[in-house]
Structures are given as C-alpha cells and as structure tokens.
From TrEMBL, chain A:
Start and end residues of each Nitrite/Sulfite reductase ferredoxin-like domain: 69-126, 363-413
SUPFAM superfamilies documented for this protein: Nitrite and sulphite reductase 4Fe-4S domain-like, Nitrite/Sulfite reductase N-terminal domain-like
Record keyword Hydrolase present: no
Keywords linked to the UniProt accession: 4Fe-4S, Heme, Iron, Iron-sulfur, Metal-binding, Oxidoreductase
Organism lineage string: Bacteria, Pseudomonadati, Pseudomonadota, Alphaproteobacteria, Acetobacterales
Coiled coil: none
InterPro entries to which the protein is assigned, alphabetical: NIR_SIR_4Fe-4S, NiRdtase/SiRdtase_haem-b_fer, Nit/Sulf_reduc_fer-like_dom_sf, NO2/SO3_Rdtase_4Fe4S_dom, NO2/SO3_Rdtase_4Fe4S_sf
Ranges of residues in domain Nitrite/sulphite reductase 4Fe-4S: 136-287, 467-563
Pfam families: NIR_SIR (PF01077), NIR_SIR_ferr (PF03460)
Protein name: Nitrite/sulfite reductase
Gene Ontology molecular function, alphabetical: 4 iron, 4 sulfur cluster binding; heme binding; metal ion binding; oxidoreductase activity
TrEMBL record, chain B:
InterPro entries listed in its UniProt record: DUF2849 (IPR021270)
Lineage top rank: taxon: Bacteria
UniProt-recorded name of the protein: DUF2849 domain-containing protein
Organism from which the protein derives: Gluconacetobacter tumulisoli
Source taxonomy: Bacteria, Pseudomonadati, Pseudomonadota, Alphaproteobacteria, Acetobacterales
Amino acid sequence: MSAEILAAPSSGIAPVGHYAYDQVDRAFLHDRVEQFRDQVARRLSGTLSEDEFKPLRLMNGLYLQLHAYMLRVAIPYGILDSRQMRELANIARTYDRDYGHFTTRQNIQFNWIRLEDTPDILARLATVDMHAIQTSGNCIRNVTCDQFAGAAADELLDPRVHAEILRQWSTLHPEFSFLPRKFKIAISGSPNDRVAARFHDIGLVAKPGRHGTVFDVFVGGGMGRTPIVGVHLRDNLPEEDLLAYLEAMIRVYNEYGRRDNIYKARIKILVQALGAEGYREKVDAEFAAMDRARYRLPPETVAAIRARFGTPALDAPSDAAERLAGARRADAAFDRWVRTNTHSHRAAGYISAVISLKPDGGIPGDATSAQLDAIADLAERFSFGEIRISHMQNVVLGHVRQDELHALWQELGRAGLASANIGLIGDIIACPGLDYCSLANARSIPIAQKLSARFANPDLQERIGDLQIKISGCINACGHHHAGHIGILGVDKKGEEFFQLTLGGSAASDAAIGQILGPALPEDSTVDAIAHLVDAYLVHRTDGERFLDTYRRLGAALFKDAVYALA
Amino acid sequence: MDVRSNRREAGGSSVVTANRLLDGRIVWLAGDGAWSGRIDAAHVFSNDGIEAVIDATARRQQADGVVGVYGVQVRDDSTTPVPVTVRERIRAFGPTVHPEFATLTEVPPDVR
Ligand code: HEM
Ligand code: SF4
C-alpha cells in the first residue's frame, strides 16, 4: 500500500499504543485468509506440488521446521492489546502445545502447527487484526520499534506513528515483494538505541528538528554469516521525504543487489561493494529523479495516522512516587525487581515495567497460554490494556502507575513472571536452535537454561552487572550472537554440537561485532567456560566497569587464558 | 535436503524419513511401506541400496501424504535404530528441552 491509500481517521475508540484497523483493512485480511484456505486445499489434493506451495505458505508465515509446521505471527512495532494477547493464548491452547515463543524481531512463533489448521488460525488472528503476512520471504519484514516507545523519559518522540506509516507503505508494496533478499527495518525515537538500528538493513532514529520530525538514517547493518555494523547514511531527513527516500534506497538495492548468490544478496553486501559514498550517490540520484510528490508524506497524513492511535490518560496521584519509595523500603525483593526491571517514564508518577520471560533454568522467550492470559489481565488492570514485546524476548507494560507497581509485581510473582534479571546475565537471548530449527547446527536453549540456572543467585547477578549473552544455533545469527557482550555460536562437527565464543559485541549505540575467542568448545565445557570468563572479569574490573568495558580495556588475551589455559 | 542431514558412509545402514504433509509431524518408513511416527518401527536399509529406496519413496510422496524424503544413518551399536547425528536424534526422540513431548517414552536415556 503506498502513501496515497493511507486511511482517514475513524471515529471508534482506538486501542492504546497501536493503530486501529478499519473495514478496508479487515476485508483485505479476510480475503487473504480465504485465498490461503484455497491454496492449502489445493496442496492437500495434490493440485499444487510442495515446490509450488512452499513460497505461498511462506508468504503467510508458515515454515516447515524440524518437528512440525511453525507459524510466525507479526506483532507490528511490538505492540499488542490485551484482546490480541488473549487470542494468541487461545491459539496456543487450541492449536499448539499450550505455549508460544517470542522472537528477537517482535514476532511470536508457534512450533507445533498443523497445515490443515492454519487457515482457521489465520482467520482467528484476523478477528483481532493480526496476521502472518511478510513474516517470511524476500520482502520488507515486520518493522520493529523501541519497547519503551511513547513512554521512555529519554525519548525525543514516539516513533510508533512512523512505524505504522512504514508498515502501511511496505505491506504488499508491488515493487518490493521480490527483493534480492529479506529486508528488515527498525525505528527508534530515543538517542539510546534499544532497537539495534545499526544491525538492520535500514535503521531510523526519529527526532524533533527545527521544522518538525527528522530522521537519522543507517543502512546496511546485519548479522548472519557476514556481520556488519550499518553505515550512517544521512542526518535530518525531513519527515515529508521519509517514504520517498526509503523508496529510493530500496530501489537502488532492488536494482543493484545481487540475486545470483544468496550469501551476498543482503543490502549490507551492496553497501560494502559500492562503499557508503557510492551507495549514497546512487540513492541521491534516484531520489532526485523520482516523482517526489507521489511519495510525499504530508503532515496531514501523519496526523490522520496519529489520530488512529489510542493515547493513555496519564493522571497518577501526586504521592505515587512517594508510595513507590515506601514500598521499596519495606520489601527488599521488590526493591531489587524495581532496580532491574523498570524504566523511567516521561510522565510523573508513571514507570515502565519489564516482565522477564527468562526464568532461572527456563526457555528464553517462551510463555504458556496461562501466562499470556495473565499478562493480558495485568495489562488491562495496570497499563491501559497495552502490551509491548521487546527484541530481547521480554514483555513490557509501558504505563504503570508507580503506586500500583508493588501490586503488579505481586501478581507477576503468582504467574511465575517476576524474575529480576533484565540486562543481567540471566537475561539471555537464544534462538530456537536445534531443538526446533531445521537450519540449526547445535542447540541454543539448553545452554541458556544451564547458564541461567548456574547464575540464578540474584545477588551474584547484580554483582556481575550489565552482561548480555546471546546464543545462535547457526551462523544465521537469529540469536544476535555477534552483538552479545558474550556471543555463543553453535557449530556442527561431524554431527556433534560445538560452541564458538565471541566477545565484545554490542547492539547499542556503541555497536560492535564480537571477536572469536578461540577454538569451539564441546557442549559440556561451554557453560564452565562462561563461568571462567565471568570470574576473570570480576577479578580485573575496575569500579563501575561493565564486562564489555573490561574486555575493551584489557583485550582478549586474559579472557582467552581464562578459558583455554585450564583446558 | 541439507547435505548435513543426508550424509552416509559406505558400509553403514540408514532409515528413511519425511514429514507428514497434513501436520508436519516426523515419520519413518516401516518395513511394509507404511509410515510410522516411531523410529523404532522404521526399516533399516543397508547404505548400499538406499539411494534407490529414497528415490522410489520420493516419487510417491504426494500419494503417501509426506514431504521431504531423505535417509538418516543410524548407529551400528544399537538394536533399535538410533541416528548418528544429534539433529536426527532430536527429530527421532523429540526436543530435548521438553521431555514431556518425547515421541518414545521408553527411549534409553543414553541416546540423547
Ligand atoms: C525457526 C525458523 C527460522 C529460520 C528458518 C530462520 C532463518 C534465518 C536466516 C536464513 C537468516 C539469515 C539471513 C541472512 O543473513 O540473509 C536469519 C537471520 C535472522 N533471524 Fe532468523 N530464522 C528463524 C527463526 C528466527 C527466530 C526465532 C528469530 C528471533 C529469535 C529470528 C530472527 C532473526 C534475526 C534477528 C536475524 C539476523 C538479522 C538479519 O541479518 O536478518 N529468526 N534467520
Ligand atoms: S540462528 Fe540458525 S539455528 Fe537459530 S533460529 Fe536462526 S536459523 Fe535456526
């Protein structure tokens, strides 16, 4: 859908934090479900072969994985309302094995789906304005966003309106349905990068300019087998040129990106080949030549989209902060959770709460149907029914009254959702790995489980401090291992699992790619090796230094000895 | 199919596997030509003749209601078929992180 069909404001009550669909959107989704129902019927009858059917099911988010079909459902810019969350719980309960898995791209995956059920599942998703379109294939994928968008104290502006505009522009974009390779866009409105903007095909940072919103643009970042930190393409792109400029960027990619070699097909390879300057020149030439009026994003359109977003009425009592402080003094465990699992809110008396999906010894990103329902209930009670999924595989309630935070925490405890480990060693990203994924070399989840169990002690976790461990089961790097302070990559040696460690990566504003420490380790010594790395850090760190800082200051040799000298 | 999963050594033996079209579940080719959800029902073929078996089976996959037919080498030190690679052991016995989803409850603990 390009700019001209952006919808007009509706009169209904919009859900807080995301865009309200109208009849046109709903009719489209309905047709799309029926189209897929027909395709499935033709596949089952044999009219369509697997080779013909595969691209069609992938366009609807349906993969064939190790044990079953896997359905990937988009959560646009990571925002759900409680009604949508309950439907996800229903789907998990009715059609899957009672749980779902949140991914690093703000999607949810169901691992045990039957092909024959999929049209019904998509129909149920459509009843709550959700779908699985463009969660696979060489198109523009789900646009991801800051999990604290519209709430964070450090935010300059709420990027979700622009994320929605990009969603509408990129959905079924006729020119960009068959790009050389998949295309991922992230957008943030804070100078503190929480979306890994420099690891996306396009990363956007929105900020207020002298004459309205402007964007800093990064291009050509990515993980996979060729990890690259994106280059800073330009500053202060005016809002009205946002779609035109992105259009130009992707046209150049569509024209010059390689289609002969899947490993060289991402835009990052093109940008490296042309050089940042060369690529910028081509984009600028395209931008100058194109019909700019057609892609112009006028302020009225932005306002119309904004009007379709519900906004929370933030009116905490004046003693909210004081009451939170009192509750923290009275309850040390709560106080610890507040230290690790909350984020400052822009409005007085409010706070954002992070619900960790990383219990000690648990599977990162998994939630049972009962937990999904509990989160929906708590969102209604404490945060205007609005729920956010973070790229760290956690859940955020954005707008919680400070005087109600203690009650929320108690309820989370009852649902098994009160782990106090956000940003700490227990907050591990792990891809599905060899337990589910047909591309995997090794299992990711068991390593995460062993690590979080080993470092379960909350005092120890806080003493170790900010430490991001990220695990991928193969070089595709879905678990972001390249950007981990400690990255763990599964490799296959003659059918057995080995793990390669990388140190020094970061997905934040100081983005960097981790460096390989040494030879890959067998599974049973990998967890010990991480413990040795942590010990070495604790011995050598200076006050206030994160693991990453100590590594950057002292280099790899010391850590290498810690792991390999003992072996 | 990924070469990694499909590699075989001369002199070894293999079973034939696929995913069921309707629900994606893993199946194994039994002696009577039917597909079973249990690897312990699978027929073990010598690697010498297996390519022909895989080809013939792949040709009738639509009629059989399966997709992605390939061969999986099994250990020669076990009386029931146990795949040599971790990947295929996970396919055969279920994800290691959910013991309650095990496909065979009586799997010997040392095969994981
Ligand atoms: C289980 C099915 C999955 C398959 C088949 C799959 C496949 C892939 C492939 C082939 C790549 C490399 C793309 C490239 O370099 O061109 C990739 C990258 C990536 N995937 Fe996945 N993936 C799966 C699951 C996931 C999950 C569960 C997550 C989130 C936890 C995820 C998030 C990502 C991210 C963030 C990247 C790296 C960013 C990029 O360069 O695109 N994927 N995936
Ligand atoms: S990193 Fe590899 S193993 Fe992990 S989900 Fe991605 S493709 Fe699968």
